[in-house]
Amino acid sequence: METKELGFGQRIGQIMQMAYVVEDIHAAMDVWIRDCGVGPWFLLESFTGPEQRYRGQPVTADIKLAMSFAGHMNIELIQPRDNHPSVYKELIDRRGHGFHHVGIAVSDVPAVRADYEARGFRTAFEAPVPSGGSVCYLENGTLDPAFIELIPATPGMDDMFTRFWRATIDWNRKDPVRPFA
């Protein structure tokens, strides 16, 4: 397992993200700010794309997402913007809003994915991401009802997550919600 440290203090091959599906992303950010002191948040109002695959089929689900850090752990909030089939809607329909996945940064998503699949995991979702490469969500029931997300540890990902993490250091609660880009 590769153990290179990323700019935001996590290592490749380890859990670096906890993600939650939420009903109202602004209300959820407010809770994390008020009750947990987590912020600022970086908000992307719409994330979709023609190359998404959910359970092997092309989909065009659209989500809002927000990211911040609690220490060195990335926290991601996800709100579906439509009723299209997705790993997010699936979990909400099955048990409601809440914990959704852990994210693991990896250098070679296809190789790590193949290793997980050889151990009985199934790919539930995959999509290209703006920071380079494609993410994939895996499941086998061991974290049920949650997923494992493989996040490509590209220079673009490291730069983006490090920028978000640095903004949380000594955050003075000003500008609690900022644009993602």
Features:
181 residues; alpha+beta; 2,3-Dihydroxybiphenyl 1,2-Dioxygenase, domain 1; 11 strands
Can you walk through the features of this model?
The chain is of the alpha+beta class. The chain has one domain (15-76, 83-169): 2,3-Dihydroxybiphenyl 1,2-Dioxygenase, domain 1 (Roll), CATH 3.10.180.10. Helix content is 25%, strand content 37%. It contains four helices and eleven strands, in the order βαβββββαβαβββαβ. The chain has helices at residues 25-36, 87-95, 109-118, 155-168, and strands at 15-21, 41-47, 52-54, 57-59, 63-70, 73-80, 98-106, 122-128, 134-139, 147-152, 177-179. Strands 4-3-8-9-10-7-1-6-5-2-11 form an eleven-stranded mixed beta sheet, with helices on both faces. The protein is globular, with a radius of gyration of 16 Å. The chain starts with 14 loop residues before the first strand and ends with a strand.
Give the SSE map.
Elements: E1 15-21, H1 25-36, E2 41-47, E3 52-54, E4 57-59, E5 63-70, E6 73-80, H2 87-95, E7 98-106, H3 109-118, E8 122-128, E9 134-139, E10 147-152, H4 155-168, E11 177-179
Parallel strand pairs: 1-6, 2-11, 7-10
Antiparallel strand pairs: 1-7, 2-5, 3-4, 3-8, 5-6, 8-9, 9-10
